[in-house]
Specification:
The chain is globular and about 40 Å long. By secondary structure, it is an all-beta fold. Strand 9 and strand 10 (107-108) form a beta hairpin. It has strands spanning 2-7, 10-13, 18-26, 32-39, 46-52, 58-60, 68-73, 78-83, 92-100, 107-108, 112-117.
């Protein structure tokens, strides 16, 4: 079992930055991927970014490329999402998730609200 706890959300103006953290505890596996997703009101949950625990390989949604940076600290079992140049359309609840590479995400955090004011 893996437990995930997000933190770092809040209210920020357009163009500002926030850094989200996702602390993992419990049983974690080196072959896991840590993903970030978001869900805005009335919209489906969407993929934002992901990073592998081993190797730190990253992937991004087109909508955040060049603005968001995903990373992880393997020793601290924590993943991060650095969000820069934020836009009102980035407003959503952000979730982190974990799962084996190529096998989807088995574990989810409780979510953290990010609100970008115009």
């Amino acid at each position: 079992q893996v437990q995930l706890v997000e933190s770092g959300g809040g209210l920020v103006q357009t163009g500002g930055s926030l850094r989200l953290s996702c602390a993992a505890s419990g049983r974690t596996f080196s072959n896991y991927v840590m993903g970030w997703f978001r869900q805005a009101p009335g919209k489906a949950r969407e993929f934002v970014a992901a990073v592998t625990w081993i190797g730190g390989m990253t992937s991004y949604a087109d909508s955040v490329k060049g603005r968001f940076i995903v990373s992880r600290d393997y020793a601290k079992k924590t993943a991060y999402l650095q969000m820069n140049s934020l836009k009102p359309e980035d407003t959503a609840v952000y979730y982190c998730a974990a799962g084996p590479r190529g096998n989807g995400y088995d574990y989810w955090g409780q979510g953290t609200q990010v609100t970008v004011s115009s």
